[in-house]
Amino acid sequence: LLLDLPALNAERPTPLARLGVFADPLPGAMAIWASSDGASYSRIALAQAPAIVGETLDALPAGPTGRWQPASFRVKLYGGALASASDAAVLAGANVAAVRNADGAWEVIQFANAVLTGESEYTLSRLLRGQTGSEWAMTPVLAAGSAFVVLDQQVITVASGIAALERTLPLRVVAAGRDIGDASALALEATPHSTALRPLAPVHVKAVRDVSGVTIAWIRRTRIDGDSWTGEVPLGEDSERYEVDILSGTTKLRTLSAPTSSVLYAAADELIDFGAAQTTLSLRVVQLSATVGRGFATEKVVVV
After folding, report:
1. Residue 22, class by beta-carbon neighbours within 10 Å (0-12 exposed, 13-18 middle, 19+ buried)?
2. CB of 52 within 8 A of CB of 151?
3. Quick one: pLDDT band at residue 37, thresholds 50, 70, 90?
């Protein structure tokens, strides 16, 4: 399974594509080979053990982020095992997994409780959803039969760094000690995208009106080293920049730019856009990356 995930840690260069390797039976360690030209290959990694992969058995509705979700769902593993962990251990990074929605996007989740309810079947509960800024990948309902992968050391980075962006990477996976031309070798292609490099969606968007117009403010997040409970989290970008789209339905009326986490929507501009002062505004707020442009967006209707 190829995984396009947000940044999971402060590793440099940032991993852009990961691979979970599973076979039943597994013929020992699995070598991962990559080619820069589609002709010659070099070994880039060795999977010593299979990734823990499976599929969901129940539909999982969207849930809240940033707090525990009481919902539960079942997963069927193709191999391996799961175990419960304390709340403290989960908050410290235990029991991290990814589920793939129907669009192919991966949501990162965590679970505190894993109860064996059948052969290789577990009920997972006490969930944390949309972790590491992946709430954008949460669909209204995650269908049963969705791919499930535990994000541990067995999930291998196969592409990293800006130079790898959008460059198709031919891969071969084969038992270590066998040639890439062996009949058992699996050929696939990875095309690393910018998911792990895009700034996370800002949060807590608010607006206040005065005689000059509407001041829109928000709180930024960070892709890197954001778990500190003291002080402001690191910026994680080359510079701090934002854009705020003023919307009317799905139509963008105006884009405001800001170097800090607030911007003034001038009263004169509001009159041009709407013809009168509004009681609510529909907004789209994004942080910008010098490398990949717009990050993930927060869309919100605010009262002014």
Report:
1. buried
2. no
3. confident
The answer to whether the predicted template modeling score (pTM) of the entire model surpasses 0.85 is yes
Residue with more model confidence, 276 or 38? 276
Tell me the one-letter amino acid at 295.
G
295's tokens: 């990050």
pLDDT tens string 206-247: 999 999 999 999 999 999 888 877 788 889 899 999 999 999
Whole-angstrom Cα distance, residue 83 to residue 303? 45
CA atoms of 242 and 264, how far apart (whole Å)? 13
Separation CA 199–CA 222 (nearest Å): 7
At 141, the amino acid letter reads: V
Alpha-carbon torsion, ordered 283, 232, 94, 139, to 10 deg? 0
Cα–Cα distance for residue pair 192/7, rounded to 1 Å: 13
The DSSP letter of residue 233 is: P
Q: Give the pLDDT confidence score for residue 74 in this predicted structure.
A: 98
